[in-house]
Amino acid sequence: MKRILWATLIVAGLGATASGAGPFRSRGGARGQAPQAAAPVEHRTYCASWTAHASEPEKVDARPLVWVLDGAGDLKGCSGAMIAAMARSDYPVELAPFQWSHGYRKLYADQTDAEHTREQGCRLAAAVLERKAREPGRRVVLAGHSAGCGVILAAGDVLPVDAVDRVLLLAPSVSTGYDVRPTVWSAREGVDVFCSKKDWVALGFVVRVVGTTDKNRFAAAAGRWGFQPRGDRALDDAEAARFRQHFWSEEMSWTGHTGGHHGVNSPEFIRTYLFPLMLGAK
Fold this sequence. Notes:
It is a single chain. By secondary structure, the protein is an alpha/beta fold. The protein has helices at about 1-20, 75-85, 105-110, 115-135, 145-155, 180-185, 200-210, 220-225, 235-240, 265-280, and strands spanning about 65-70, 95, 140-145, 165-170, 190-195, 245. β3, α5 (about 145-155) and β4 (about 165-170) form a beta-alpha-beta unit. Mean pLDDT is about 85; it is low at about 1-55.
């Protein structure tokens, strides 16, 4: 009988301890008051970002989303320069580098494989639309350098009208006769092209030897001479109003862009000429 009595006392004591500590702790109301209702429990996963708030609408990120496409060889010159420029400024921009290259230093394959360029353009278009569906109303910009411009143009060939807000083509290594009309219509604010006639090494000599990104061995590069839409590819008035070409001039030299192929990757040039376009300030 004594053993049974002691066991009963121990079980009762453990039950009282558990009820007053740990995650199951509860506190009764003051004497003479009705017991308070239990506080609502918020269920969270182990990752805080996965917490469900069914009653709160998802907030749209106010920063422009800028998809960045580097040139051939995955050298990350353009994306790296934009990251550096953003670190030295207060521009609210989210940069999203898009991996499209055959691999690091595979410059020849990236520049000459037009089928791969088109395939990667379709991938980019799908990624843009998928992100747009998740974040409707957010500003979207496509920015590419050299052969990366070919991927953007291939995406523009299949994107719907006004799918993005703006397209920036920096020293594009596609041919001057590339049909830019689909890309012009895919960008609500149109297309801005940055060219330089002083880009005679990469977009002069090299293109003459290996051809343009769209596999034209005998055409000049648009990043040097500008796009020249003619014949059945000529722009009508509405398209021309959405298409702007900016040629290098001496007044840009102070930014570090002295006319060469990689001048557009100067952080000060990006801060002065590109970020305002990304933000829609121009």
